[in-house]
Amino acid sequence: xxxxSKGPFDLALSLRAAASFLPTVGEVPVILRxxxxxDGRPTILEIQQPFGTSSLVRGSSLPVTGQRRLREMxxxxxxxxxxxxxxxxxxxPHPIMGPVAAALLGLKPLRPATLxxxxxxAITEQQLSLAAAFYIRARLVSRFGTRLDGLWTFPxxxxxxxxxxxxxxxxxxSHRKAEYVKDLARHVMQGVLDFDxxxxxxxxxxxxxxxxxxxxxxxxxxxxLGRGYGRPDCLPSGDVGLQRxxxxxxxxxxxxxxxxxxxxxxxxxxxxxxxAFYLSAHWRLLRAAGATPIGxxxxxxxxxx
DNA sequence: TACCAGGTAAAAA
DNA sequence: TTTTTACATGGT
Length: 305
Fold this sequence. Notes:
Elements: E1 2-4, H1 11-20, E2 32-38, E3 41-48, E4 56-62, H2 67-77, H3 85-91, H4 97-103, H5 115-125, H6 130-144, E5 146-148, E6 151-153, H7 157-162, H8 165-170, H9 175-190, H10 203-211, H11 218-228, H12 240-250, H13 258-265, H14 272-288, H15 296-301
Antiparallel strand pairs: 1-4, 2-3, 3-4, 5-6
Helix pairs in contact: 1-14, 4-14, 5-6, 5-9, 5-11, 10-11, 12-14
The chain binds a DNA duplex through helix 5, helix 6, helix 9, helix 11 and helix 12.
């Protein structure tokens, strides 16, 4: 099936950027291959860009599913509706952000298949390094997910709601976080919390709905609004990782405070979250290529191999 | 070996 | 009301 991205899109670059945030193992594939629940059954999805970085994307699923559902899922995973053009236009004249965005033309944030998974990602990443959180999720997935052709679907709310705190803890979650995960799964199952219904709601409304669950504070709300709901202006300004990486481009060595971070990104409103994502990805990709710490202007002008 | 890592809720003051 | 503490694993 053919799907179009709104505006520029570079799948290979987006995959490389996504991988740069995780403990990587070798070469990053240029095809997005993942297992998801589609029409209620585990399905392998393959998404590729047959003509380089053209906005045309091709996707297929096994077993074959309804075209409408398949199209929706593909568009969701690659943020197809996100149009990068206004963002690039806004930041182009900026001495730091301009070169960074230009070096990453077509970079889009890739999303997990469901907002439920996004919320669990947020819980696992609270206070822990991304690497530690990654391994905890890997154990959750292999214990409670469904295996299909060498891939795993993320565990359903039903499976996690039914899991014992002991088994969740065995995956590396603290007892507290195990409770958060179980509570969240139960709320979704019971319909108390409907992530998808919230998609059409305001940031504030989503915020309220999330905060009423144990385990979700300001950081998690902003993280999920930005990465999950794709609200391009949202970002967790209290985030330690962002404070460090943004400081490399807009600071003087020391980690930024939340207020300083807000200040530094204010010129990029209403795309502050996207700007933060670009800066993070830029740094991570340079890092992966073996770059050493240097000043903001040199850093911003370095090209991504 | 410590200490910190892309926080949060609950206890203590 | 505000401040302090416990908590999980992995990297340095």
